[in-house]
Amino acid sequence: MSFHHRHLLGIEQLAPHDITTILDLAEDYVTLNRQTAKHSDVLTGLTQINMFFENSTRTQASFEIAGKRLGADVMNMAMQASSIKKGETLIDTALTLNAMHPDLLVVRHPHSGAVDLLAQKVNCAVLNAGDGRHEHPTQALLDALTIRRAKGRLHRLNIAICGDIAHSRVARSNILLLGKMENRIRLIGPPTLMPAQIDQFGVEVYDDMEQGLADVDVVMMLRLQRERMDGGFIPSEREYYHRYGLDEDKLALAKPDAIIMHPGPMNRGVEIDGTLADDINRSVIQDQVEMGVAVRMATMELLARNLLASRTDTA
To answer: Over the range 272-292, which residues count as b (16 or more CB within 10 Å of their CB) and which as e?
Structure first.
């Protein structure tokens, strides 16, 4: 397989063939994960450290399960109670970890660029599990795999990303990935939740759900990220749901076979009607969770291959 990256820091660095390579390998892991015996030995003898400076139950659990199913020794570091709280710098933490000789470092951090900084200071492969408002590459990859399996392709689709675009690293990574794969992307949300200069991303921007959802193939809802808001971005949750929450009437404007997505966690009755979220005929939200484990297994295998190859070359 042709994949020559040392780290997975974002979608921006990936070419379309890199994306396809990851998704094709992830398909094999979807099959493995549905079997009774779910284990592989491709990471046997390697150490994976999960460093989550932000809480994220589903992402951390997904990476942990992925590593263990591949045979890695997995350690979760409780960063909320770590030396960082005692004043240690991120670079000092990286140097300390480097001395332990890990092989895979999975990092989630509230500040954009922090994961890239860590990657410059360690000798192992680094996977970005979300950094500030920057990127969340494995989420975009699992979304891509979900779309490809549901629609049979990952190109020339009309895809609407709706809600809190401004604070969403998931939106940014999806815009980059789906754009690379030649899709038509529509962003829908209130002007207060749109990033500045968003028109430079090659997307269509709507502040009206009815117009934006017309004839789309995929409806991707986003969580309102109140923890990243420092002002009055919306008048009220009730008003937000009325205008931008996904319900039956708004969904009816999309194509009859349009799928519903959400990265989670969901605020039911704010971003999406609970009945729609649970509709097995339209919602692929649980499929996204399943694809997340497979995609993370695939990315870790590919990075581990490159890591071991580089060590062999320098031995």
So the answer is: bbeebbeeeebbbbebbbbbb
